[in-house]
Amino acid sequence: MNIQTISKNIFFAVIPITLSVTSCQPKFDDSDYSAYFQGEIVNPNSDYVLFCKDNEVLDTLYLDQHNKFSHKFDSLTPGMYIYRHRPEFQYVYLDKNDSLNLRLNTRDFDHSIIFSGRGAEKNNFLMALNMKNLVDENYKYENYDLEPGAFLRKLDSTHAARTTYYLRSKTLIGWSNDFDIYAKAKLDLHFFAQKEIYPLAHYIRTNQDIRQNLPEDYYSFRKKINFNEERLISYSSYTRYLSMMLNSVTNETEIDFDASRKFDKNIEKLNIVDTLIKNKKVKNAILDNIAFIYLLEDQNLNNNDKFLDRYFELSTDKSQHGEIIQIQEAVQNLKYEKRLPNVPLVNTDGIPVEVNNIIRKPTLMFVWTKNTLGHADGAHRRAMQLLDQNPDIQIISVCIDGEHTEWVKFVSKYKHANLIELRSTDFNQMKDKWIITKIQRSIVLNADGTIKNAFVNIFDRNIATTIKEKKED
């Protein structure tokens, strides 16, 4: 989607703010916590929507013959909820007595979401803010090339303008203090995350280490963050920022991409969380996240055992320990010299393809989503560069979502004899069998189709060497 279309959606998403504040608001009994949630799913992927709180499914909302759903909650605690229409999800905030109507099109999921009805204004604000943040994705990588002064001026200027938008909307809508926790997190953490990433991203893109050139108060924004805010445990803006912050802290004294250091750095992350976060629920959630990501990156079995010993020592949520162990066991199914399990894939002609039948050379496979086209473009450009420099390899690009015609149009920009474009037609199968949990995931396969390394990144500096290393007999 182009920027003009996104901007148009932002404009229409904001309209309900000015319309609703002038209307008379009905009075309700203070003890009445009922709420309505209804909507229409255009081009549905299934016949239901899951309504969730954190990681728990509270209700299944089935679509009727017109692809609409409607549900009354007799008693619903005000707060942030999640609705899932797989493979995607988004947030919705419901106050008592809200009566929300949702409309979305799965072919343009986030960009198409519009709310109407009682409570729509605050939710449309969050979606409009989300769209503004997505527009930033088109420019953030080139911003990382800037020197510190220019980078900060540009970022802080945008942050200030968006803060003005937030304050104006807050005054017009008059939302609750509880909702403001989420609105402020969505606003600020988007910019704080870019500040965390900048020194490392600048080094990766320019080979210049600018950490010594940063202002003395560069990281002062961290003082504004409540690292013990329990309500944000399942809010992606918060958990994503904490992950980036921990990566930043472990690289502040030494930028190091040595794979052998992953164990040390992740142990350091566990220890930082133990010191930094006092709230047990928040601490356990972040420890779980670190363990989850680590097990998908470091496949040294001896290191894994040592890492889990420290994780179990710090985590007090025993209910999650079994899930972490299950993840470790699932990872073993993608061990060295096994083959990738078959998952439903199609080529640009819509013809089903079995991935193990198309491996002819040492191969790199990367995945991407239509929701982060900045990453998709960057990964494709990196793929073209690798193929130009290494004609004896092939690269397979796999889109995990999206509509077929839209996907074919996007990938038509990237042409190379050794670049194969595929699309997943069942992301849940691929997610479970290939353990696709983050979009920066790539897999290296030997020329005979066996797995060399199932957990790499296409942007790794030494990825070409990893692909071309001879298979040991």
* Sheet of most strands: 6 strands, mixed
> Can you list the strand order of the major beta sheet?
9-12-11-10-13-14
Poorly predicted regions: 1-26
Number of helices in the DSSP assignment: 15
Q: Gyration radius, to the nearest Å? A: 23 Å
Determine the structural class based on helices, strands and strand pairing: alpha+beta
Which strand-content bin applies to the residues?
Answer: 15-25%
Helix content: 40-55%
Total number of distinct structural domains: 3
Protein name: Thioredoxin domain-containing protein
InterPro entries: Thioredoxin-like_sf (IPR036249)
Organism: Myroides albus
Give the helix/strand layout:
Layout: H1 3-20, E1 35-42, E2 48-53, E3 56-62, E4 68-73, E5 79-85, E6 88-94, E7 99-105, H2 109-112, E8 114-118, H3 120-137, H4 140-143, H5 148-173, H6 177-206, H7 236-251, H8 262-276, H9 280-295, H10 301-314, H11 318-331, E9 345-346, E10 363-368, H12 373-389, E11 394-399, H13 404-411, E12 419-424, H14 427-434, E13 442-445, E14 451-456, H15 463-468
Parallel strand pairs: 1-7, 10-11, 11-12
Antiparallel strand pairs: 1-4, 2-3, 2-5, 5-6, 7-8, 9-12, 10-13, 13-14
Helix pairs in contact: 1-3, 3-5, 3-6, 5-6, 6-7, 7-8, 8-9, 8-10, 9-10, 9-11
